[in-house]
Amino acid sequence: MKYRHLGNTGLKVSTVSLGSWLTYGGYVGNENAKNTILKAYDLGINFFDTANVYMRGEAEKVVGKAIKAFRRDSIVLSTKVFFPMGDGPNDRGLSRKHIMEQAEASLKRLDVDYIDLYYCHRFDPETPIEETLRAFDDLIHQGKVNYIGVSEWTAAQITEAAHIADEKLLNHFVANQSHYNMLHRDIENEVIPASKAHGVSQVCWSPLAQGVLTGKYQSVNDAPAGSRAAENKGSIHSFLTEENLNKVAQLKKIASELGITMAQLALAWILRQDNVASTVVGASRPDQIVDNARAADISLESETLDQIENILNA
After folding, report:
1. Helix, strand, coil proportions of the chain in percent (round to 5)?
2. Distance between CA atoms of 190 and 179, rounded to whole angstroms?
């Protein structure tokens, strides 16, 4: 396993991390989830990601129970706040009230004393950034959170938050959990340059385009039994097009020539970016995390990257 610094901090996270979106707390049996987390740790993965909204807190409970097997200081644990956790007008967003209440709720569900990385799960246009930053800053000073981050914020939003933090002497965001993979590259033009300028790393989610980049789909009309497409989970159908499957077929040939799996190629391609600290995979079985973790040791040559670029831009 390889490790990279998170933002401009001294914290090192595994370049492949394990998430729990669309997996733990409901879709995957708890015992299988636990075994996958244990296997990830054995492989050197130290970064585990969840969120309060995943299965309305159930994913946090599953992760919390599994990590009891590890020394708390040997892992980096992240969770998030923003999405509705109730029906009331203050049960969502990034107000101080919601952040402080949900931080306490997450700590309880995870059964830990502190959260290593606490994310704003999305941008909240109804709450001043300064209010959000101050709440996060207070959580850091209270010892309940170590580092703070955002998810899916624009370059302008990341930049504004950095300027406010400088002006008000508040702790800075150091990570942006961003949607990034071979078939979704929106962050390259603006978000990555802005993040680099302000000491923010990317932690990339959906690196395998919800399974499309594993190469298991041969046709949009032929989804394997038990797959996300067959069970209509997440937003996989936005990636599951004949055009994308044609690209994946060509990419699989490159992976085969390199002696690696299609998933490993897709993950290694993301890790070519030096602004990426980690890529979050959503393994539902121990053997999947074994395959994914191997991508951390794969370095793609410039000639291979050129071939990939030609396929993706065709």
Report:
1. 45, 20, 35
2. 14
CATH code of the domain covering residue 71: 3.20.20.100
Number of neighbours of residue 115 by Cβ within 10 angstroms: 24
Residue range(s) defining the domain that contains residue 88: 3-210+262-298
Residue 243 lies in a domain: no
* Residue with the two structure tokens 């994946």: 248
What pLDDT tens digit does each residue of the chain (314 aa) get? Answer: 999 999 999 999 999 999 988 666 556 778 888 999 999 999 999 999 999 999 999 999 999 999 999 999 999 999 999 999 999 999 999 999 999 999 999 999 999 999 999 999 999 999 999 999 999 999 999 999 999 999 999 999 999 999 999 999 999 999 999 999 999 999 999 999 999 999 999 999 999 998 999 998 887 766 555 555 545 555 676 888 999 999 999 999 999 999 999 999 999 999 999 999 999 999 888 999 999 999 999 999 999 999 999 999 98
Q: Full-prediction pTM beyond 0.85?
A: yes
The string of DSSP letters for 173-198 reads EEEEEEE-BTTB-GGGTTHHHHHHHT
The domain tally of the chain equals 1
Residue with tokens 């949900």: 102
Catalytic residues: 54
Q: Is there a domain that residue 225 lies in?
A: no
- Domain assignment present for residue 279? The answer is yes
Residue 218 lies in a domain: no
